[in-house]
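Sample intake — Diacylglycerol kinase family lipid kinase
Collected from: Rhodovastum atsumiense
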Amino acid sequence: MLIVFNPVAGRRRAWRLWRVLDVLSESGVRLEVAETSFRGHATELARAAVRDGASMVVAAGGDGTIAEVANGLAGSDCRLGVIPLGTANVLAHELDLPFAPRAVAAALAFGRTRRIWPGIARGSAGERLFVQMLGAGFDAQVVHQLPGRLKRALGRQAYVLQTMRELVRYPFQPIRVQVDGQAMQAASVIVTKGHFYAGRYRLAPGTCPTEAGLTTVLFERSGPFAALAYGAALPLDLLPRMPGVRQVRATRVEIEAPVPAQTDGDPAGLGPLTISDAPAPIRVVVS
Ligand SMILES: Nc1ncnc2c1ncn2[C@@H]1O[C@H](COP(=O)(O)OP(=O)(O)OP(=O)(O)O)[C@@H](O)[C@H]1O
């Protein structure tokens, strides 16, 4: 079993990985650990493992690492395992994956497999699979501007701090979107495969990554006060019911403006982008 470990994911959570590895090796599982050295390295490692005939690659990190491994596994039958070590770990919450080391090890060794349908974003910089969501507009601006050091020092609190900074300088230009060919406009847009956002906060009730299709969440109210209200509603689990928050199911979403974009919590360049389901599902090991 190849474990792709991102040493910069999360904060001081690597001990979980060592415990998982202890349990797995005690059970006689043959392990190989590869540490990532740069952004995109997990994709290269996963792709090479597929070429070598691997049947399972484990992402030890957060959503960004899982997405990178998923990009490397795309189009293959290789299974994706997860050791959640990230800051938000949205996909792990979404699929109800275990976090306790013994339970993680048991899932990796004996767990069932579920198929998830990743999304794919196509733009001038190429194409990129995402496992949880793509944001365009304000939340992506926060992700683009967030210094890595701040994230590692403060974890989730770093996002709150960066959000406050961006509230006063983001221009909140309107974003034009085509949702299955229908023209819409919003201040920010999140295209999601799941119902959680930024951890276990509800964003798109009824959306499930094991199903094909996308949910487009449009934030129609613009400006810093609206963004602040949406941000405050998130931890209170009120976001889906906020005025100006609209949810539309779709198979194809086009973001027309050159706005900042993020996928699974990592910068994904600027629009325009076309988003749909990936051509094939990915098999994820669950408990
Ligand atoms: N050695 C490295 N140095 C710098 N960045 C790296 C390295 N290895 C991987 N990365 C990058 O780190 C980024 C963040 O990783 P990841 O998303 O897994 O952690 P996280 O942001 O803490 O978790 P979450 O996305 O769940 O909040 C990934 O986009 C990956 O490309």
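Post-analysis note: The chain has a mean pLDDT of 95.
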